[in-house]
Structures are given as C-alpha cells and as structure tokens.
TrEMBL record:
<dbReference type="InterPro" id="IPR052030">
    <property type="entry name" value="Peptidase_M20/M20A_hydrolases"/>
</dbReference>
<feature type="binding site">
    <location>
        <position position="199"/>
    </location>
    <ligand>
        <name>Mn(2+)</name>
    </ligand>
</feature>
<feature type="binding site">
    <location>
        <position position="141"/>
    </location>
    <ligand>
        <name>Mn(2+)</name>
    </ligand>
</feature>
<feature type="domain" description="Peptidase M20 dimerisation">
    <location>
        <begin position="219"/>
        <end position="310"/>
    </location>
</feature>
<keyword id="KW-0464">Manganese</keyword>
<feature type="binding site">
    <location>
        <position position="143"/>
    </location>
    <ligand>
        <name>Mn(2+)</name>
    </ligand>
</feature>
<dbReference type="InterPro" id="IPR011650">
    <property type="entry name" value="Peptidase_M20_dimer"/>
</dbReference>
<dbReference type="InterPro" id="IPR017439">
    <property type="entry name" value="Amidohydrolase"/>
</dbReference>
<dbReference type="Pfam" id="PF07687">
    <property type="entry name" value="M20_dimer"/>
</dbReference>
<keyword id="KW-0479">Metal-binding</keyword>
<dbReference type="InterPro" id="IPR002933">
    <property type="entry name" value="Peptidase_M20"/>
</dbReference>
<feature type="binding site">
    <location>
        <position position="395"/>
    </location>
    <ligand>
        <name>Mn(2+)</name>
    </ligand>
</feature>
<dbReference type="Pfam" id="PF01546">
    <property type="entry name" value="Peptidase_M20"/>
</dbReference>
<protein>
    <submittedName>
        <fullName>Amidohydrolase</fullName>
    </submittedName>
</protein>
<dbReference type="InterPro" id="IPR036264">
    <property type="entry name" value="Bact_exopeptidase_dim_dom"/>
</dbReference>
<feature type="binding site">
    <location>
        <position position="175"/>
    </location>
    <ligand>
        <name>Mn(2+)</name>
    </ligand>
</feature>
Length: 428
C-alpha cells in the first residue's frame, strides 16, 4: 500500500478500472482489495469461502476459470488469495470491532461486465492510459468507483471514534445477480442494525445525492434448453421435431404474457441460439430470458407464466424443455428513516448541491437480498446514489465516472455511518 486510501482515490479507482473481471472471476480484484484492507487494518477479514458458503452462489459459470486465474496471476495477484478464492469463490468481508454500539453494514459490488471498452481518444480512460487491459471486459457500471468508496469509508471509520461494529461487504457477481444471495445468507449479515448500499450515477449528476430508492424491480433470470429430433430438411422433414420452431413459439408466447393489474411487470428474451445448418432440422435450441415485477409476488407471476409459455411451446412441437431459474432477486425499498438520515448528513457535505430524499429505481439489484434480510431481522436499510457525471449511459463502451464525485461519496458514507451510531434512527 502506497499511502492512505483517502489520498489515492483517483489512483485506486483507475487501477480497478484498468483491470476488470466479470462475476465469479474477480481474482485480481479480490487480491487488490485484500492488500488495501490489510493496509488499513481490520479486526477480521474473511476472503472467499471464509465470507460465505460457496453452495449459496447463483449463476456460477460452468468453466473452471483457469484463464482468469492465470490473468490475475500475471497481474500480480497474491497466491494465497488465489488459493482462498479458487473455483470462483471471490469477494471478501471486512469487519471492525469497536466496542459497544450498533452494527452497521456497507455493501459495495466489485465485478465488471462483458463489454469491450472504447479506444476513442475522447474517452478519458483511453486518453489517460487506464482503459481496460482486457478485450471484451470493462467496468461499465461504476463498480470500480464503488470499491474505492468502500475502502475509503472503511479507512475513515477505522480512524474515527466510531463505537460499534462495522461490516463492509465487497460483493462479487452483482451483474449476474448471483452474489447478493450468499452474502445475505452469511454469518456477517446477522445482527446488522443499519445497512447502507451505494451506487454512483444512474442519471444523477455530480453534486446530487439520492438518499434512498424505492420501486426496485424484483427479477428472475431463466435459461431454457429445447430438445427435439434432428432430420434432413429436404429428404425427411416430417421425421424431425423442430427445436427451433419450439423456440420461436416460446418467444412469441413470452411476449404474449398478460400484464398484471396489481402492478408493473416486464418480460424479455435477451438471447437465443439454435441450429447447425440450413438443411438440418434443429434438435436443440437455447434461450435466456427474464421476468421482472414491481413486487416480489409480481416477479413470481411473471416467472411462472414464462415457464408455462416455454413448456407449452415445447409440447406443441413435440420437444422437451429444461427450464432453469439461474438467479432471482426480491424487491426491497429503502427504509424512510434511514434515507432521511442520509439526506440530513448529505446536506452538510461539501460538494453536494442537491439532495433527493427518495427516487424510483426502475431497475433491479441484488443488494435487495441483503436489504431484505436486514429488514426481516428488525434492522433498517437504504440504497443511496452518489451522483456522478457520466458521458454515456451505464453498460456502454464509453461509460466513465466523474472522479470529483469520489470524495463526495466517501464523506457522505462516512458521516452516515458515524452519525447513525449517535442518532435515534429506528425502524417504526
């Protein structure tokens, strides 16, 4: 570690940005986090399978991740961390024990996306030399900034007179919707009185802070494989059971699912593949889709109707189908009491020009697993947004963050954590 995190916010964020890794392959990322956390000094640092049960993971890739392990090793990842995260058990949890007081949690995500980063000289990471070093992978959603905020807040709380227990979740695989569940099932979530989760940007400019969100859409990601019978398309098409036809019917049926009177629902088929050649009746087809709902119950409605649509399509074309839910996340709204607390803190932070007490989210996030668990156990949670100017939208090749938002985010999070310990914020 070259010095205090607070003095290296830009440097640290750029290092994370230059070395992105996708969900359940965050080997180098975890190693860098461990180095920084050890430099800060904490009372407990749980890495990989020490942080959660690997069996609780969702959307785990089938490959052995050897390519990503070797790439992490070449980047300088520590061998002991590679051993502790072997098999894609990435991420970590850091804990400060500071005597009597509340247990406060902070969740940040750490994974990148399968998006190729722009090399246009107008794109600042390309111009300034910290563009992704891995073709087809980049931090296109601000998780590089989130990790930086998490580390800097941990350091600031460590150096303060905070009294209580502070737990920071460096969560893998958010983009897959797979990492929130194991963290929410771990021992570290137990007894948390106040939980903060954070995101940058999302259309909110530098200087604005959104103290809490609501209307996070519950979501289920599904995969289905249709299996039919191959045949020659010219000589004996009647002998085939066409998996591609089943796929087409399934897609049509999916978009015909009725909306629901009790709230917003969404269904989308995002990827489909089938067939081998123009003269072969396809005997296999695969599809990836999702169902979202304004409530967890509405998500369940969409998911069950999606399965029924796919199974009906398979049956109508004499095919079989394997239907699997790969990940799903519940809805969880910010508790108004804690959002109000964040808003009050943010009003006094230098660089904050506008505070929104609450805003609609309109998308999905697996931080809701942790929020839901804390709320179910009697604690309260909020998901806050630190505004940052971004030249293009999230999940695009030219996404970037305004680094002037980093110190704003650190101060808002730090003061929110420190002040909640001395406040009367309670669930009602």
């Amino acid at each position: 570690m070259a010095g205090p995190v607070a003095e290296r916010l830009v440097e640290l964020r750029r290092d994370f940005h230059e070395h992105p890794e996708p969900g359940w392959r965050e080997y180098y990322t975890t190693s860098r986090l461990v180095e920084e956390i050890e430099g800060i000094g904490v009372d407990e640092l749980a890495v990989g399978r020490e942080a959660y049960d690997p069996d609780d993971r969702m959307a785990v890739p089938e490959d052995a991740n050897d390519e990503w392990v070797e790439r992490a090793r070449e980047r300088g990842a520590r061998e002991d961390v590679l051993e502790r995260t072997a098999g894609g058990v990435t991420g970590c949890v850091a804990v400060l024990e500071r005597g009597e007081g509340p247990t406060v949690g902070l969740r940040v995500d750490i994974d990148g996306l399968f998006i190729g980063e722009s090399d246009d000289p107008d794109h600042e990471p390309a111009r300034e030399g910290f563009r992704s070093d891995t073709d087809g992978t980049m931090h296109a959603c601000g998780h590089d900034a989130h990790m930086t905020l998490g580390l800097a807040t941990l350091e600031a709380v460590k150096e303060s007179d905070f009294s209580g227990r502070f737990v920071v979740f460096f969560q893998p695989a958010e983009e897959l919707g797979g990492g929130g569940h194991p963290m929410a099932e771990s021992r570290f979530i137990e007894g948390i009185d106040y939980l903060f989760a954070v995101h940058v940007g999302l259309g909110h400019p530098t200087g604005r802070v959104v103290a809490g969100i609501e209307r996070v859409l519950a979501i289920a990601h599904v995969e289905a494989t249709f299996r039919g019978t191959s045949a020659h398309a010219g000589k004996s098409p009647e002998e085939g059971d066409n998996a591609m036809q089943a796929l087409g019917t399934a897609i049509s049926n999916a978009y015909g699912i009725p909306r629901h009177s009790e709230g917003m629902t969404r269904v989308n088929v995002g990827r489909a593949e089938a067939g081998t050649a123009s003269n072969v009746i396809a005997d296999r087809a695969r599809v990836e889709a999702e169902a979202r709902g304004e409530t967890t119950a509405l998500k369940e409605y969409g998911k069950s109707r999606l399965e029924r649509a796919f199974r009906g399509a398979a049956e109508s074309h004499r095919c079989e189908v394997d239907f699997e839910v790969t990940t799903e996340c519940p809805r969880a709204d910010s508790d108004p009491e804690l959002a109000e607390h964040v808003a009050s803190v943010a009003e006094g932070v230098e660089g904050v020009t506008e505070v929104l007490p609450i805003a609609d989210f309109g998308a999905s996030e697996d931080a809701t697993y942790l929020m839901d668990r804390v709320q179910a156990d009697g604690g309260i949670a909020t998901y806050l947004i630190v505004g940052t100017d971004h030249p293009t939208g999230h999940h695009s090749p030219t996404f970037d963050v305004d680094e002037a938002s980093l110190p704003i985010g650190v101060e808002v999070l730090t003061e929110a954590v420190l002040d909640v310990a001395d406040s009367d914020v309670r669930a009602t």
